[in-house]
Amino acid sequence: MSLKEEFEKYAEKVKSLPDATNEDLLIIYGLFKQATCGDVNTSRPGIFDQKGRAKWDAWKGNEGKSQDDCMSDYITKAKQLLEAAGCST
């Protein structure tokens, strides 16, 4: 299985994650966006959009990382979260 195929498999599995902290979800989101879109290409949301700002900051935190590195990190984090939730990996 290629890295991209494994990444897509875990991206689907994470959607059904029963209980994850906001911090974990932001880590997953930032890695996903960097792996699929590359570096941040939008302006930071305004002060009244706290959720949007948190997501943007999570993505920005991975700026400069290669897509392959982000896919690999995403898979590792997804496996940890799924195992902690008692889901099959």
Give an overview in words.
With 89 residues, the protein is mostly helical. It has a single domain, classed as Acyl-CoA Binding Protein. The chain has four helices and no strands. Helix 1 (3-14) packs across helix 4 (67-84) and helix 2 (22-37) packs across helix 3. The protein is flat, with a radius of gyration of 13 Å. The model has no long low-confidence stretch (mean pLDDT 94).
**Backbone structural class:** mainly alpha
Oligomer: single chain
Kindly state the mean pLDDT as a whole number? 94
What is the C-alpha radius of gyration, as a whole number of Å? 13 Å
Order of helices and strands: HHHH
Specify the CATH architecture.
Up-down Bundle
CATH top level assignment: Mainly Alpha
How is the CATH topology named? Answer: Acyl-CoA Binding Protein
- Contiguous low-pLDDT stretches (5 residues minimum) are none
Largest sheet: none
User: Separation of termini?
Assistant: 14 Å
Query: How many E strands?
Result: 0
Shape: flat
Number of helices: 4
> How many domains?
1
Helix content: 55-70%
Beta-strand fraction estimate: under 5%
